[in-house]
Write a structure and sequence with these properties.
The chain contains 15 helices and 10 strands. With 360 residues, it is α+β, with helices and mostly antiparallel strands.
Length: 360
């Protein structure tokens, strides 16, 4: 019995991995898988661990692109791998379309380490939304598998497999689910390795520090150290507020959030400790209809704005409101005139600008 065969499900045997199947994997696949696992084990504590984890998945499942995205319970997603992304892909996503990313929504609402897929989470309306038409089309995404690894500080390093055409089969998804404990174990070992010798000190990104269960600081990155030295940063005052029972997040003077989250009881150098980090609040999918910028609109026009921002096309909006598509088009023409805009894209950008000003 090979390692790959132990990861195969009954569905694999019936559909994909039968000895007579034309697409049966070559005998070298098992060797490639062992080599990929060995390379990932050797990368624990280094800078390429997640590249190696993605290579394990690429051996198991045919994919057109692999990536690593940091999904946060509090902030916007961060694309980590690939390290360079085309502007036509990154710009619309980072400008606010990420608010409609089903994986972003999953982590903000469920926040449970798991394996899932775009097809499993997406609603029927997603495929006609601006997220699909602008971002997914530019990124050439037809389906995705997401591996949400155990979080640190409320954020999950998530391994993503993209397919440009078609969808991942149930057998392929099951294969990734079966290898999830291995990926999570390597990830946890990596976290323990980088914390124990204090390697986090060299990570200059979002302010972050780890403290043990007694309150002693174990490690802090350069961004945290810089913020702590800023007399106008408000960090000392925010930490004092976090000391109150039940408080887990506090706003800083610049609108960012200081967040404290608990670490697992078996987390290496800080078992039962906590992680404190600073995040920029994420944009939400929709905003309350009483926002000041929507004040000139009628109630029906505000409903149409909200449904448009949620990604519904004209036909779906008309069906939900029980009117014709022509009526919706007339309402949109009038509300565009009131808001001094001419396109749906301008509506979306205006919405994002007001959310950012409000610090949401």
């Amino acid at each position: 019995m090979t390692l790959l065969s132990t990861l195969s499900t009954e569905a694999d045997a019936q559909v994909v991995w039968t000895p007579s199947a034309a697409d049966a994997p070559p005998r070298s696949v098992d060797t490639e898988l062992w080599e990929a696992i060995g390379a990932a084990s050797a990368a624990i504590g280094g800078e390429t661990l997640y590249d190696r984890l993605l290579e394990i998945l690429a051996v198991l499942v045919d994919t057109d692109l692999v990536s690593l995205v940091r999904y946060s319970s509090f902030g916007a997603p961060d694309l980590v791998i690939p390290r360079e992304v085309r502007d036509e892909v990154a710009a619309p996503y980072n400008s606010g379309l990420y608010a409609f990313d089903p994986f972003h929504h999953y982590w903000r609402t469920v926040a449970r380490p798991a394996v899932t897929s775009l097809r499993r989470l997406a609603t029927a309306e997603l495929w006609k939304s601006r997220y699909a038409l602008e971002f997914m089309r530019a990124a050439r995404i037809s389906d995705e598998i997401a591996v949400f690894l155990p979080p640190i500080g409320g954020a999950s390093p998530t391994l993503i497999l993209d397919r440009a055409h078609g969808r991942f089969s149930a057998a392929e998804l099951a294969r990734v689910e079966r290898v999830f404990p291995l990926l999570a174990g390597l990830h946890n070992a990596h976290l323990k390795a980088i914390v124990s010798p204090g390697m986090i000190v060299h990570a200059e990104e979002k302010p972050l520090r780890l403290i043990d269960r007694s309150g002693k600081e174990l490690a802090a990155n350069l961004a945290w150290q810089k913020l702590s030295r800023d007399p106008n940063g408000g960090l000392s005052e925010a930490l004092a507020e976090l000391a109150d029972p039940g408080v887990t997040q506090v706003s800083l003077p610049d609108g960012r959030l200081l967040i404290r989250s608990c670490l697992a009881a078996d987390f290496g150098a800080a078992p039962g400790g906590s992680c404190e980090q600073v995040e920029t609040p994420a944009l939400t999918r929709t905003s309350a209809p009483c926002d000041a910028w929507l004040a000139p609109l009628t109630h029906r026009e505000r409903e149409i704005v909200m449904l448009t921002l949620e990604g519904y096309p004209i036909a779906s909006i008309a069906k939900r409101l029980g009117v014709s598509r022509g009526t919706i088009k007339n309402h949109r023409l009038r509300l565009y005139q009131k808001l001094d805009i001419t396109t749906e894209r301008e509506l979306f950008l205006t919405h994002m600008q007001h959310l950012q000003r409000a610090g949401r």
